[in-house]
């Protein structure tokens, strides 16, 4: 199999040479189009991008200058089943784009229409076809002419309610004097006015009832006149109020014909039809913002639907509105189909880590989506797994680990607090969650760690972009046991590791502020930011008087950790083209231990390396600082108080579900203060101790699952003598020993960031 891989580039090159030999008789391979401007219109660069995106057909894609998808297609024979020929032709390959598919005259007309729709009313487009013996291409010549700009926007001046509301919202108009005429902006303005009217109760109005007339008699300028069409029906010209709101929380198609027989129970400003008493009425009091006797508002309609979806209890939600005959009133009905109340999930996972550990995990998850008839979610999970070190790095020391864990979580779709918190009028349901869990980690031949953890807190979204997670109570009790003489010898050589492994309470609060606009797919630039502050033992330290013999404050006879930990994770994504993205990440973490704690607890320290970090170094084997331990390749236990990490990655679609990437990562970890047992681990020379790695990867993106293979190697090793840390001169891909020592294959699920 390995030998075959060496021949693939040669086969692709051979196939690319034969691409022109397999064309249908009398036809030619279409290789694309060139767009030329005879003038220099304002915004020419953006205009060129828009026009090039409209040109059809799209020629066969090139990868590294070769039409590889077309080559794959030509390598295969017509498939008779789901074998290799099927993959090459139907999945990975791409049939030739032929000259016979070119409709240059039609495309030229499309380009001209686009120009005219964007203010270039006098634009002209010409085309020609340039042919060779086997190929052909098109050339489109564009004369844009002078662009027309908006001179003024005139709104309807009559005394009708519709005209009055249009004038009330005039400051929100997207049509601005001085801007270039755009048909898309006119459509956007009609939608904006329609939404404003629906917010004022005009349920039956729609954008088609609005007319925007254009007067282009002025040279280079246009006057726009917004009017309501005379044929607009009376139903659309008056506002509507909600008369009744009826909710069916246990609706199904099977029961559709029987719902009229169910008992209707009035509750505050709506009526509930739920003979099975599946949900308590208060669930909908917090989620339904369509109120009886109130004016219909589109925002209330949308917030209601999104809140009901966010509850997580309903798989189908439908809102129906019926006009009361002869009156400007609406009856609103909500049909809700619930998920099954209880579900059980069983998962079996396998993993492979860059430090030669492979393993498997089995987990059982039980969910109750409506525990106390208030859309509460009970989540019980049990899991266990193992890891075993394989390959040349395995030794008798710590080659196997076993884990067993369980957690019980309960979430409520509201704030539960001793203080009254107003239910925010947003589409997002606030959540209160409490959880408790237990975990056992056994490293064969080293130690056993037992941990009890729990938390209580809140999660809510401020809007589409900002999310808050506040855990006023977050605790973790770690109990190491069964420490072997072999691990005791390691601890004796690493005082910081010993202190971080001591029995201790971690009890405090955490707050996370998160921003993301990645859901806005039309943006060419999106961002993600995560800011977290983790406090432990601060309030407890003020209240506790009990101390042990060492002077440490105690809780229930056990010392507790005291620290402040701040982490910022910033990411940015530039969409370079339809299939290419430039992704960047910057991560900074800082932990400060004080009082009871001389070092940060092991579970709160930072580590670096691995498939989602600096991929040229195995997980937990890099640093701190310029320190380097050969035993860390086996134990993978290096950690620090401070972390700096930077990554840049160029991602591109190759073919079908296969994406490629080239990347570079940099960073390191440090102790705030030098650890005498780990020379070079302090922050004093941190700027000189940045590790750098680079590599390339393949990602198989099937939408619901991304399987990632990243192959990386170091460019800078911070433990080398100062002045010799860049190792570019050592790179030797043909050297087996170099590959063994430096090439790191990371296999993971999902993107690294």
In brief, what are we looking at here?
With 753 residues, the chain is an alpha+beta fold.
List the helices and strands and how they pair.
Layout: H1 2-17, E1 29-37, H2 44-52, H3 68-75, H4 84-92, H5 104-117, E2 124-131, E3 135-143, E4 149-154, H6 161-168, H7 183-199, E5 210-215, E6 221-228, E7 241-248, E8 264-267, E9 270-273, H8 282-287, H9 298-310, E10 314-323, E11 329-338, E12 342-352, E13 357-368, E14 377-389, E15 400-412, E16 431-443, E17 447-461, E18 466-481, H10 485-492, H11 495-500, E19 504-516, E20 525-536, H12 538-543, E21 554-555, E22 558-559, E23 563-577, E24 580-593, H13 632-635, E25 642-655, E26 658-670, E27 691-701, E28 706-716, H14 736-742, E29 744-749
Parallel strand pairs: 1-3, 4-6, 7-9, 7-11
Antiparallel strand pairs: 2-3, 5-6, 8-9, 10-11, 12-13, 13-14, 14-15, 15-16, 16-17, 17-18, 18-19, 19-20, 20-23, 21-22, 23-24, 24-25, 25-26, 26-27, 27-28, 28-29
Protein architecture, described:
This protein is an alpha+beta fold. The chain contains 14 helices and 29 strands. Strands 12-13-14-15-16-17-18-19-20-23-24-25-26-27-28-29 form a 16-stranded antiparallel beta sheet. α1 crosses α3 and α3 (68-75) runs antiparallel to α4 (84-92). The longest helix has 17 residues, at 183-199. It is globular.
